[in-house]
Amino acid sequence: HVQLVESGGGSVQNGGSLRLSCAASGSKYSVKCMAWFRQRPGKEREGVATIYTGGTGTYYADSVKGRFTISQDNAKNTVYLQMNSLKPEDTAMYYCAARGGYCSLGIGLYNYWGQGTQVTVS
Questions:
Q1: First-to-last C-alpha distance (Å) of the chain
Q2: Residue of 15, 20, 35 lying closest to 89 (CA atoms)
Q3: How would residue 30 be classed by pLDDT, with cut points 50, 70 and 90?
Q4: Which stretches does DSSP call E strand in the chain?
Q5: C-beta of residue 10 within 8 angstroms of C-beta of residue 93
Q6: What does the alpha-carbon distance between residue 56 and residue 45 come to, in Å, rounded to a whole number?
Q7: Is the pLDDT of residue 27 over 90?
């Protein structure tokens, strides 16, 4: 079993930046892909970015490409989401997720989820 704990959310002005963190613990050896998802008010949860834990392969949703960067520190078992040029439409609960298979933005593929961290852009 894998436990995920997100942090770093908060309130920021339009155009500002935030960095989210996701600390993983437990059976981390089984995890091949880490991802960030978000759920905006009144919308379904959607994929934002993915990263392979064994390398640097990343993927981004079109809505965040060029503004968000996913990265990892394997020594700290932590995945980050650097969010720049934030817009009001980025306001959402952001979730970290993990799975043992290939990376995908398909929400149903992920076995493990964090509790979420709120990001508000005004």
A1: 37
A2: 15
A3: confident
A4: 2-7, 10-12, 18-26, 33-39, 46-52, 58-60, 68-73, 78-83, 92-99, 112-113, 117-121
A5: no
A6: 24
A7: no
- With tokens 């992920």, the residue in question is 110
Rounded Cα–Cα distance for residues 28 and 119 (Å): 26
> Residue with structure tokens 């379904």?
44
d(CA 102, CA 2): 17
Return d(Cα 86, Cα 45) in angstroms, integer. Answer: 18
> In the numeric block, which tokens belong to residue 46?
């959607």
45 and 37 Cβ atoms separated by less than 8 Å: yes
- Span 52-80, pLDDT tens digits: 998 779 999 999 999 999 999 989 999 99
- And the tokens for 86? 């934030």
Locate 21 and state its tokens: 């963190």
